[in-house]
Design brief:
Length: about 280
Amino acid sequence: MAVDPALVVSGAHVLGPLSVISALFLSLTSSAIWSRNVGETSCGWRVDYSPDGRAFGIWAVIYLWSLGSAIAQCTTLVIVLDWWTSASWSLTWVFCALWVPLFDAEYLGALRSALVQISLAAVFATVGAWDSRMWIADTPAQLAEQLAVGAPLTLLAGWLLAASSINVGIVWKAGRPDAVRTCIIVPRSAAKSETEAEYRARRRVIYREQYAKSPAVVSPVPLVLSAGVGGLALLIRDPLLPVPLMWAIVNLMAFPSVVYMCSLLLCACGSAAAAVRVFMF
């Protein structure tokens, strides 16, 4: 939406973007402090539809683009998202921040609480993406500007929907009476010179090697999730929403299987149908 000159003078137009920036740094701080066991927890209760570690590199794109969008909105150079959109975006980052220490704690009760947090984050991100109405524009230039500002919120929503499904599988797996950890515990090196960063890097390599040796199992979950996310994209008129899930699917060990190719097709159909709603109606 256009910025009211009176808001520019008072500075009130930057409160929404500033809240997003503050919550984003809260999430980053939480990850920096409490993410010691996040990888070990995911590995310990690995589900068949968990993507390769490289898929999680999307977080860097989401964080950087979100920060750039919020900073740009603090100027008068681009549109400023609605108050409710910024509030939803901020709450999304807050719930992401709360998720980290709970998931890091590893025990079942904490994992269940973490599932609640990441599910709420997915809900608020999706509501924010819907409320942004970034696909409704009068000119191509306005559409491009709105996409540049609002797209990272949609990508965050799509990725959190995929991540929530993984968290559901982890909670279900960890809560089974016959639950058995699927990942070894990597002890610290006897050498006192090994730093925390070096230990995490060594552990990450061991986990990736173990993941590469594990059997490729095709899960029906991505197919079901693709149908749901594709339908949601059509409902909120956002063709970008299924993109993060598609990224996760192509990084699954069993890709390209027939099930996973069908999952991609469902996502693509959802995006196409959403685009038709945007540009034709």
